[in-house]
Amino acid sequence: MNEWKGxxxxxxxxxxxxxxxxxxxxxxxxxxxxxxxxxKTKLAEAVSDALRKKLILWNIKSTxxxxxxxxxxxxxxxxxxxxxxxxxxDNIEKYVKLGKLGEAFTAKRxxxxxxxxxxxxxxxxxxxxxxxxxxxxxHIPETGRTVTAKHRPVVIITSNAxxxxxxxxxxRCVFHYIEFPDKELLAEIIRxxxxxxxxxxxxxxxxxxxxxRSLPQIKKKPSTSEAIDWIQALIHGGVNPERIxxxxxxxxxxxxxxxxxxxxxxxxx
Amino acid sequence: MFEEFLFLLRRxxxxxxxxxxxxxxxxxNKGLHGSSFTGFYHLCRALLVKSEAEFDLFDRIFLAxxxxxxxxxxxxxxxxxxxxxxxxxxxxxxxxxxxxxxxLSDAELETMLRERRSEQREQHNRGSYWIGTHGMSVxxxxxxxxxxxxxxxxxxxxxxxxxxxxxxxxxxxxDSTLDLRQxxxxxxxxxQYSGTANLPATEFDVDDTIQHTxxxxxxxxxxxxxxxQNTIKVLLLIDSGGSMDYYTQLISAxxxxxxxxxxxxxxxxxxxxxxxxxxxxxxxxxxxxxxxxEWLLSNLSGDYKTIFAGDAQMAPYELKGKYHGSxxxxxxxxxxxxxxxxxxxxxAVWFNxxxxxxxxxxxxxxxxxxxxxxxxxxxxxxxxEEGMKKLLAR
Lengths: 269, 394
What we know:
A: alpha/beta, 9 strands, B: 16 helices
């Protein structure tokens, strides 16, 4: 039985661990949503690491088509080859290149497949993958071959909620929303990244950080990854912990918008 | 087993399908709830709810349903028997122990409870460590500890209820909109591809390749072309405040759908009642965040597809009254400003979230006048589709 309990480098809440285990046991895709910077993509790495399975990453862009994930038939190469009479031109199989999904299906051992930022693609994209994700197989008409998954991959899908996903797709997923961590969990996460961090510094950082997040005037709230970058900057700059809450040094690492920086300066006491 | 729960969810507006319900049953059969009620709550949520916007609704339904159900099955019968003892003198109060008990976090309590339950073999009452009654222990009932998890006794063990009771997801509720995806699909009609974009030629051009190869006496000449890009530009003008408050959800669905569709360019401005000398960049109609309407008219070219969203209901003087502009030869009433928009933007439609008022001329007057200026459609799925056709017509 594959059971996931977080890892040395990834601190997961109990709910998240359970969601991962449900998805693995039911062989359903796990859909992860959450604020940017809460570690959605990192999760797949941690899971693959902990279950000792290879990670296949499929990064979705606005131009990505569902078909590309299955296979690509390289007509141009074949045409070229036919001109020069290269060997094996009549073997279409040679010009069919499997995409990430195809790669995951044909892997000799079970893999973890991460479909990252599925909402970046066209609205119809998730629908185009329904059948393939459900049955874990697809057909290649050019060669008459059907690719069936030898081992159903553990599928993790992340979304930033830029577009709404279709109902039919959602019904097939296990859903988890990564909440922004509370102080204790964040402290734990920071400890994983900076095992030797000074307690005083940590508590000051946490205080300043959560106060910034609680300001209603801040539009783009800093996230976990920004907190970690900030600590890195503070350590590098050798900042005295006493100054952190009072002056919030290296503010640019935390806040990326000019309006937010101004808003903070105005409202910080 | 608890099908009622499914029907309650559906009645309350959570669209849970049979597929999802069957998955839940399958998961329960596999024991994925880890025999705990908290686990059961998380399992239900992961499988039945598909948006964080619906978490709060789910929490409320879950609370309403399971608060009535006795939750004894989680604690073994043997343990319950031990905990059922009533005729025991009360143990001694221990201040230090009380302080320590209070300092425990929820997570620590959970872990300790798991340990105890696997270790405990017999009845322990009046103590501070084991699960029992009348003592300083944090587990059990009828005890003296200021804090802990109640087990057995009358009320049952309800940690999951506590989790759901926190209702941490209340904040996400307001962005739940019904037809967002359908709206987006309707807006997808507003895509007009053209190859004029300044991108490198990366797309395989079959026709051109055949042509050149044929000209070349059969020697393969591969040709590429520039990928096409959406060239549609959109100007969205939204009526905000006043009578529009009734339609906040619908307007926000429209706004979100428009802003999530990848147009070549999208400009959004707000107005109150009608367009006058200023347009606002913020729905709060804050004069500090505004641009002169004239600036917009001279800076945004006429090929912007213009979408108005408003109920077009106002007092006649708000539309025709000549107090919005002071200079000679410039428009001075809302109606005159609208004329300018109509002349400048050939492709313009007006989406109306409300209906034409059928009582009293006072309110329907402005509606009719605006409907004469711009093609007006109801802000529904059908209306949106009709409107998109109008915007694309040549």
